[in-house]
Amino acid sequence: MSSDYFIVLGIIGVAFFAVSGALLGHDKSINGFGIVVVGVMTALGGGTLRDLLLGKPIFWVETSEYLLATYSAIFATVLFVRYMPSPSNFYFILIDTIGLAVFNVMGIEKALMSGTGMIVALTMGMTTGIFGGLMRDVVCREVPYVMRGDVYASACFAGGLTYAALFTLDVSYLWCILGSIFVTVLLRIASLHWGVKIDLFRKRTPKPNNTSNAKQ
User: Fold this and answer.
1) How much is the average pLDDT of 109-126?
2) 75 C-beta neighbours (distance < 10 Å), count
3) Residue 90 has what pLDDT?
4) In this structure, how many other beta carbons lie within 10 angstroms of the beta carbon of residue 174?
5) Gap between the Cα atoms of 152 and 177, Å rounded
6) What is the C-alpha separation between 147 and 199, in angstroms, rounded?
7) How far is CA 76 from CA 45, 96, 112, in A?
8) Phi, psi at residue 62, to the nearest 5°?
9) pLDDT confidence of residue 87
């Protein structure tokens, strides 16, 4: 992927995550500069951790357009919430999911450009997509989505596997990106629509012992 396309994709990702951070901050009655802190943390946290792990320059320090997009998205969200009806929770989830999907692709792409293998790239994609939202939820005293059993990290991972499969088939970068984003968003929204949860430690309910009752 060319650097210009990577920057555009990153700007889209930070903008969506900045909006999701500002919206959750508003929902939790965070006000003043706190909204900016939550929005910036959400937008830049995952990518910052990714770059530190890869030993690369921090992306928003190297390219200031990411900061401009982050602050602009937060400011636009504040104006929208102030002068328009409050958006429903579905729009927050949709915006957060798009940010997750885009950041997942960014993490994968940057790891591959750094010379890592695909399994490391998939891990970096999940790190980029999840960590900013994790920080946002912790600061806002929410149980993070990734900890709830929602189809969140698993949707991110499925999107990453889609990217890997298309990449292995030598499909063009554009379709790798679009396929990954589509699968991540589709799984996340569909799971919420049908109430799908992932419960790894659910135990079976023991069946009643009808024999002992009959003897009595």
Assistant:
1) 95
2) 15
3) 87
4) 10
5) 18
6) 11
7) 20, 16, 33
8) -75, -35
9) 74
Please, which residues have CB within 8 angstroms of residue 106's CB and are 6 or more apart in sequence?
A: 6, 9, 10, 13, 47, 125, 128
Closest CA to 48 of 120, 124, 139, 114: 124
Cβ–Cβ < 8 Å for 152, 146: yes
- Contact 43/17 with Cβ under 8 angstroms? yes
Query: How does the average pLDDT of the chain come out, rounded?
Result: 89
The tens digit of pLDDT for each residue in 148-194 reads 878 999 999 999 999 999 999 999 988 999 999 999 999 999 998 88
d(CA 75, CA 210): 65
Two tokens at 199? 């419960």
Residue 211's CB is within 10 A of a number of other CB atoms, namely 7
Pairwise CA distance, residues 46 & 41, whole Å: 9
Burial of 200 (0-12, 13-18, 19+ CB in 10 A): exposed
Instruction: Using the structure block, give the residue that is written with the tokens 């990577």.
Output: 6
DSSP result, the chain:
--HHHHHHHHHHHHHHHHHHHHHHHHHTT--THHHHHHHHHHHHHHHHHHHHHHT---HHHH-THHHHHHHHHHHHHHHHHHHSPPPPHHHHHHHHHHHHHHHHHHHHHHHHHTT--HHHHHHHHHHHHHHHHHHHHHHTT---GGGTTBSSHHHHHHHHHHHHHHHHTT--HHHHHHHHHHHHHHHHHHHHHHT-B--TTPPPPPPP-HHHHHH-
